Amino acid sequence: MPKLSVGLARRFRAADIHALLDEAIVAARLVSRASVAAFFQMNEGGEIRHHFPGDDRSRRLLPYLEAALSGVHGRFAVAERFDDSRKDARFNEIAAAATGDLCAFIIVPVYYGGQREVPGGGAASGAKGLPTFRGGELCGLLMVAHPLPNRFGESEEDLLSALAIQMGVALENARIYDEVSRRNKVLTVLNRVAVTLVVEHDREAVLRRVLEACCQVTEADSALLEYRAVTGESLRLMVPEGRDLLQEVLPLPLSEQVLSGRTLLVPDLRREGTNDLLWRMAPRSLLALPLCSGIGAFVGGVYLAHGSAGHFDDTHAEMVRALVSQAIVAIERMLAAEQSAGVRRELESIFHSIADPVTVLQSDLTIVDCNDGLLLRLGKSRDQVIGQHYFKALVGNVEEGMWNVAPLVFRTGKPQTARVPMVTGEGASLLMDVTAYPVRDAQGSVVKVVEYAKEVTAEVRLQLALLDRNKELNEATENLALQKDELDRLNRQLQEKCKELERIAVTDVMTGLPNHRAFQQGLMREMRRAQRHGANLSLLLIDVDHFKLYNDTYGHPAGDEVLAQVGRLLAGTLRDVDLPARYGGEEFAVVLPYTDKMTAQVVAEKIRAAIEGHRFPKRAVTVSIGVATFPDDAADKASLTSMADQALYAAKQAGRNTVHVWSTLPVIRRAA
After folding, report:
1. Is 557 helix (H, G, I), strand (E, B) or coil?
2. Structural contact between residues 204 and 236, judged by C-beta atoms closer than 8 angstroms
3. The predicted structure's pLDDT at residue 288
4. Looking at the DSSP assignment, which residues form a beta bridge with residue 239?
5. Is 381 helix (H, G, I), strand (E, B) or coil?
6. Where are the beta strands (DSSP E) in 493-532?
7. What is the distance between the alpha carbons of residues 170 and 178, in angstroms, rounded to a whole number?
8. Quick check: 550 and 482 in contact, CB under 8 A?
9. Residues 225, 210: Cα–Cα separation, whole Å
10. Axis-axis angle for helices 547-554, 556-573 (nearest 10)
11. Is 408 in a helix, a strand, or coil?
12. Interacting residues of 347 by C-beta distance below 8 A, sequence separation 6+
């Protein structure tokens, strides 16, 4: 378990997490001694993902978990144990039939970030003494099962709950890591698109690159873009080429809604559709956005599809809208530049379409040009910035000397970078990465500097949050390891105490011999062995002569001492394989494995003589002994006990202090 928790805490990528989940399922099966184990997850579209690590038998759990996750039984808040699914009213009859011969179940919910927080009630978990993590969103169910009923107990339930916490922590860690990776991916794609808008002059190439970027940032399976330029030119692009899955959508009223300016976010076309065509389509999730020209007219639409339900969300829509809008603006400006043959106007349009701040400075640090991205963040007009000294134009937004790296570029002629804080015109604090590039004349001298600022506030905050989260997870993992060590120590103490209790439960306190219960179990065990091997087994029943008179004369403490000494004499006289026991009151019993009648008679006489010759505190003590042998005298345990008891009775009738064997042999009396 500690090794598994460390592995879960250190693996971030989805492939690593899937491998760890398989290891966790195997661990769940081992710690619970279950027959089968599985882990089930449900995505936002309602589809169930399941993990069966190389064990097809675990697929029998799928019908029940599908019913549980879809709401038939409701969400599981805590671990639940089903001792016998055939008798438990909580277990659905249909699911019980589907799972076949599986009877005992433990179902443990796994929450992102660890345990779920319940208001006023602490953490909803079957595990005890474990830390509570932030989060609480159910991400799946861990389930183990066994064909035998009543197979699992609280210890298995607690171990599985602790394992579920570690799985939830790992999944939360992977989710954070994936989110940061996704955002980095989006930023990379946006930068590439921005470069494309600057250097590319082919309208179709720009739209195709933007459409490919939309697929990358949304992870769509396919995409379609229709564009109708103001000049009457029409473009229709598919990504990837040759995919016609979305071609069937456009003739429907769906396309008309997009062209009229409506954004559509359809989680599942198969559920939303009302005609046969939509139900036959391969894609399930659909994101459709209108394309708006610079003058507000709708000039087309972009359609993204994915094979899984519920794939797209509002964030995807905003990213696609930003990408496509910039592309459309850039393309329309290309058309205007081509019509007017003004190359400078084309470059300026692209320059001002960049969302991030861009500033052009001359050698005296006067601002000669800037884009709208800078003006938007400063909250100032173009007249308030152009022609002004850099520090005067940015006073109140940037601390003097912190942002501007242009003087160093003018001196060295090399690009320079810096990360500095900035305050927007609305008072919001941002963190910007600034890069300054030299612009040279024909002689190679630096005549201007272009500063490009990229906002990294959200990225830095995510990185810091991830570092803090990793620190918390590492501390939690160390705490879990310490608690596991303490739990192991307590378990060892408990096992030792259980062994001691088991020994006490089968031991007579007064004599130190096995008690009547242990005698019955031992006799049954030896009887079966003798029957299996065809061997002899003898039984001695021993009674202390006139023990009641001894108690009445010397008192019960003296009588107890006699019984204790008789017990020690029996233990010291017999073999290790023999079983002496206190039968009850003043009676003792001895089981002699692999002992025939004659040998048993000799052993009984040895015991009788040892007790007769022992010096007891008050007076001499003698015993009467009855002997019976399997299979000569009896064929089963009850008969053997009865024969030995009758032989003991005969010995007492014969005058006591003697051995009587259940047979036709003469009574053996003590020597004169």
Report:
1. helix
2. no
3. 85
4. 223
5. coil
6. none
7. 12
8. no
9. 10
10. 130
11. helix
12. none
- Tokens 């909250």 belong to residue: 379
How far, in Å, CA of 575 to CA of 590, rounded? 11
Contact predicate 24/39, CB 8 Å? yes
| Residue whose entry in the numeric block shows the structure tokens 């932030």 | 134
Give me the DSSP letters along 221-243.
SEEEEEEE-TTS-EEEEEESTT-
Question: How far is residue 219's CA from residue 5's CA, in Å, rounded to a whole number?
Answer: 31
The torsion angle over the Cα atoms of residues 575, 579, 583 and 588, rounded to 10 degrees, is -10
Give how far Cα 249 sits from Cα of 173, 253, 273, 278, Å: 39, 9, 11, 8
Q: Is 54 exposed, middle or buried, given 0-12, 13-18 or 19+ CB atoms closer than 10 A?
A: exposed
Kindly give the pairing relationship between strand 579-584 and strand 587-593. Answer: antiparallel
Q: 70 and 173 in contact (C-beta within 8 Å)?
A: no
Residue matched to tokens 């009641």:
548
Q: What's the first-to-final CA gap in the chain, in angstroms?
A: 73
Contact between 636 and 528 (Cβ < 8 Å)? no
pLDDT, tens digit (0-9, with 9 covering 90-100), for 251-288: 455 666 776 777 878 777 666 554 444 445 556 778 88
Can you name the residues that pair with 141 across neighbouring β-strands? 40, 109
Both tokens assigned to 159: 């171990």
Cα separation of 572 and 581, whole Å? Answer: 13
Backbone angles phi, psi at 232, to 5 degrees: 95, -10
| Whole-number Å distance between alpha carbons of 223 and 238 | 6
Q: Which residues of the chain have a pLDDT value below 70?
A: 1-16, 42-77, 89-100, 115-136, 191, 193-201, 229-233, 241-256, 259, 269-283, 293-296, 332, 334-347, 395-396, 399-404, 664-672
What SS3 class is residue 411? helix
Peptide bond into 283 cis (omega under 30): no
* Whole-angstrom distance, CA of residue 593 vs CA of residue 524: 11
Asked if residues 266 and 285 have their Cβ atoms less than 8 Å apart, the reply is yes
Q: What angle do CA 539, 540, 545 make, to 5 degrees?
A: 160
- Distance from C-alpha of 92 to C-alpha of 86, rounded to nearest angstrom: 9
Maximum Cα–Cα distance across the chain: 144
Q: Which residues lie across from 593 on neighbouring strands?
A: 537
Q: CA 410, 416, 421, 424 torsion: positive or negative?
A: positive
CA 631/CA 536 separation, integer angstroms: 7
**In one letter, which amino acid is 137?**
E
E strand spans, 456-602: 537-544, 579-584, 587-593
**Residue that the structure tokens 């612009």 belong to:** 439
Q: Is the distance from CB of 312 to CB of 304 less than 8 angstroms? A: yes
Please name every residue paired with 448 in a beta bridge, in sequence order, or none if there are none.
362, 439
| Statement: the pTM of the whole predicted model exceeds 0.85 | no
For 275-302, give the DSSP string: SHHHHH-S--EEEEEEEE-TTS-EEEEE
Q: How far apart are CA 94 and CA 121, in angstroms?
A: 33
Residues 413/401, Cβ–Cβ less than 8 Å: no
Helix axes 2-10, 457-505, angle to 10 degrees: 170
The pLDDT of residue 385: 83
Residues paired with residue 157 on neighbouring β-strands, in sequence order: none
176 is written with which tokens?
A: 């954070």
Q: How far apart are CA 207 and CA 236, in angstroms?
A: 10
Structural contact between residues 64 and 24, judged by C-beta atoms closer than 8 angstroms: no
Q: How would you classify the pairing of strands 234-239 and 222-228?
A: antiparallel
List beta partners, residue 409: none
Listing DSSP states for 113-176 in one string gives TBSEEETTTEEE-S-SS-PPPS---EEEEEEEEESSTT---HHHHHHHHHHHHHHHHHHHHHHH
